[in-house]
């Protein structure tokens, strides 16, 4: 779709994306991000601050855990996903999330490079407020081998183009 | 409940909490965290890295947005919630999340001090693997005025006490 190409441009940071408003969105539109590399040091730094568990901060201790090696906090995978969405899903009024449902089919590992593919699932105009609606977006976060690390479905409060 | 008192001790970082395994958990148990203060600089620093939208990084520009002033990224509220859970919900095998459902009834603001109250909703032993089960936990994140900033329901993979 047309906006696909524009979204992929963001990888090269060539031009800002054309802002999209409620009336520009359609079910099935897809937006693909650039690639975001993640190393061991970045995994440990995030986890020390927000999720200091052995399998996220200590490569040696992680070997004897459920993860059998260092794994990123799922909330880091989510935070990076958000960063990539701000770059690749150009909703004019911003990405204002009302709520989200998240699953992690497999852990993010040191050396993974993440990218996102966001797809519009549903568009629901507000009944009481004609200037806005909710757009439901499903985003997959994948690594360089195409393995799905995270699925998140988000309801985004979206406005019509200002008059 | 008994574990309430232990959980609250973590605020003073006096003693490590007694680790809990699948057989120690019961529906209705509650775990309360210490308080985590959040200022404008911390909100902007997180958002610059993971959610660089005007209403999260620019106090002036934020005034003319939906949020009518600087608001923390919901993913920062979630990351802080995770940090507080690692300190206050002492599951022996760690907090291994399979998935989560999140909602933000109102934004987190500069000057808010956050704490969490986690409550065990459901315990489902695995049918095929007798050493483990899933524990569903509902966590509210509240500010210093008792206003709910976030609701998250998480399914946590939990193991029985090692033999």
Characterise this structure.
The structure is a homodimer of 163-residue chains. Chain A is elongated. In chain A, strands 1, 2, 3, 4, 5 and 6 form a 6-stranded antiparallel sheet that branches. The model of chain A is unreliable at 1-14 (pLDDT under 50). In chain A, a hairpin with a 6-residue loop joins β4 (113-125) and β5. Chain A has 5 helices and 6 strands; from the N terminus they run αββααααββββ. The first copy, chain A, has helices spanning 2-9, 40-50, 54-57, 59-62, 74-88; strands at 30-32, 36-37, 96-103, 113-125, 132-142, 148-159. β3 of chain A pairs antiparallel with β3 (96-103) of chain B.
Number of spatially distinct domains of chain A: 1
Largest sheet of chain A: 6 strands, antiparallel
Using only CA atoms, what is the Rg of chain A?
Answer: 17 Å
Q: Indicate the low-confidence ranges of chain A by residue numbers.
A: 1-14
Termini separation of chain A comes to: 26 Å
Mean pLDDT of chain A: 91
Which term fits the overall shape of chain A?
elongated
Helix content of chain A: 25-40%
**Considering the protein shown, what is the CATH homologous superfamily of chain A?**
Hotdog Thioesterase
Instruction: Determine the strand fraction of chain A and express it as a percent band.
Output: 25-35%
SSE topology string of chain A: HEEHHHHEEEE
Number of strand elements of chain A: 6
User: What class, by secondary structure content of chain A?
Assistant: alpha+beta
**Mind telling me which CATH architecture of chain A this is?**
Roll
